[in-house]
Amino acid sequence: MRAATLAGAAVLGVVTLLWGVSLVSGYDVTSDVDVTRASVGPSMEHWLGTDHLGRNVAWRMLKATEAFMGPALLALVIALSLGVIGGAAAGWFGGVVRWLIRYSWTVVESLPRFVLVLLACAIYGSEVWVIAVAAGLAYAPNVGEAVFTRIESFRRAEFVLAAEAHGVHPLRVLTYHLLWVNCGRLVARHGLQLFAYFLLLETTLSYIGGLDGAGSFGVPQPDPSWGNMIAFEWREPEANGWASWAPGLAIWAVIMSAVQVAEGLVEGADG
Amino acid sequence: MGAFVLALAGAALLAQWLLWLAPGDPVDLLTADPELRAAMVERWSLDEPPHVRTLAFIEGALTGDLGVSLTYRPGEEVAALVWRAGVTSAPTLVLSVLLAVGAGVAFAYIGQGWTLSRRAVQALSVAPVFLLAATAVVSINEATFYAIEAGWIARPSWFALPLGDSILKSALGVTVLAIGSSALTDVHQASDDELRRIRRSGYVDAARARGAPLWPHVLWNLVPPLTTITVSRTAFFVGGLVVVEKVLQLNGAGAMLWQACRMRDYPLALGLVVGAAAVVCAARLVGDVVRIGVDPRLRA
Q1: Best of B8, B138, B262 to disrupt the A interface by mutation (most A CBs within 10 Å)?
Q2: Which end of chain B is less enclosed by CB atoms within 10 A, N or C?
Q3: What is the pLDDT of residues A196-254, one digit of tens each?
Q4: Mutation test of the interface with chain A: which of B119, B185, B258, B270, choosing the one with the most A Cβ atoms within 10 A?
């Protein structure tokens, strides 16, 4: 396996672990304010220093994993289930089913994902769960088209015809022989790409929302997101640099890691 | 052309249905005044069943009537607002697409086969657009401030970004959009793969044997795959435009969409969303025409 894939997997593992720690930690984002220690640099007590309200940057970085990990999983479940079911149905049945499903994907893909998510936030409110559902729905055509192409190319393959001739139930041919054996890595790759995309989406909305102030989109202060943490510190004259650089680097590192692991899942990349 | 119309009509209707599926009445969010409310319900045909509303919307859209703005520029025609903002944003969008394609091909051509060049471009390009824009703004401002303090230069007219309008800021917007959110790395990797494939093909060997220059053959054969990747990335560029315009405080359709969504100006937001879908569908149409024009096999 490539070194980059392993490193990427390690980073994703650490982020998942930090998310777990955050969920059980009980860190309170509102009671941490203490302006007497505003914008101090890293120390043993505050590993990444404090922001200009004196809040512990390391703890907020940790807590910010909650802003995207759970919602990203929701987006994954929506996109992967819709994409796999739609792609399998379109590739297996063909005809009108195929046309209808692929047309609906073309329609969704005609709307830029970011624009669709923004519109959904405007209509349904900007909670991070709305972003997750919108991102999942907007990403499903990507997964679906990939699964469809794979299923269609194997629909008349010899191993499928052989399985059918042996009397294997068509549902088992589709779910096991085609989807599980031949589309597993493909779907996992799309899942990782969606994870990277969701982090990008959430931090982007939270960053711009943070610059905009109350009533805008993304995760609002005082709840932390890596995006709004940057927006909160970026223009402070005497800011602790780590308070904005650390979330920025974290966003980049996690997206890069997800992309590397996804690349490692390309068939034949092992050799 | 049929596919273009079908996709655009579907996208416009999807955006409409998103609004109609919202719990409650969208008008409730906008006004408590019963008279104004009744006028809005009638204007949007909200008291009609969905299929009648859909037909009314299509009829309006076909005649260029997308309604009037409610909160962003109250009373102004949405179609006119969308057109003006679209014209303002078009150069940023087109130039960033051209820059991404040009730079991607150039890097692939120069750094053929170097894994390092591939990795370096990817490392830069996976960064979100907002992060690149914010980092560039801070870096340029800090460097300029240092130079002014040291007495090397006089205070430039554009200082400090992102305030005010300047060529530098617009160029920064184009560059950031061309690089960020994987735009550059997609083109670069596709070009790199295609260049390897093309250079191994028989017609390149034949050209080489004749002593003819190779690049016309190579570049001409890059057009179809690059068209495909550019078309598939158009939606990302349009989405990225919103981010770039907001972060760098540029005027245009992207910033207007953000504001329209924030101010719950539904007719304007829907008009801009339909405009964005039109750009994506038009790019698909142009892509098909280019591919058919370049590849005679597709004409059969």
Answers
A1: B262
A2: C
A3: 999 999 999 999 998 887 778 888 888 899 999 999 887 777 778 888 899 999 999 99
A4: B258
| pLDDT confidence bin for B117, thresholds 50/70/90 | confident
CATH architecture of B2-299: Orthogonal Bundle (1.10)
From B122, which residue of chain A is nearest by alpha-carbon distance? A256
Whether the per-residue pLDDT at A30 is higher than 70: the answer is yes
Our CA-based measurement puts residue A162 at a distance from the nearest CA of chain B, in whole angstroms, of 34
> In terms of Cα–Cα distance, which of A60, A194, A219, A190 is closest to A128?
A219
Percent of chain B with pLDDT over 70: 93
Lowest mean pLDDT, pick from A233-237, B206-210, B220-224, B283-287: A233-237
Give ipTM to 2 decimals. Answer: 0.89
Chain A residues touching B138 at Cβ < 8 A: 234
- Rounded Cα distance, B17 and B11, in Å: 10
A117 Cβ contact partners less than 8 Å away, ≥ 6 residues apart: A131, A134, A135, A138, A201, A205
Which residue in B127, B134, B281 is closest to A252 by CB distance? Answer: B127
Of A103, A111, A208, the CB nearest to B276: A111
Distance from CA of A134 to the nearest CA of B (A): 11
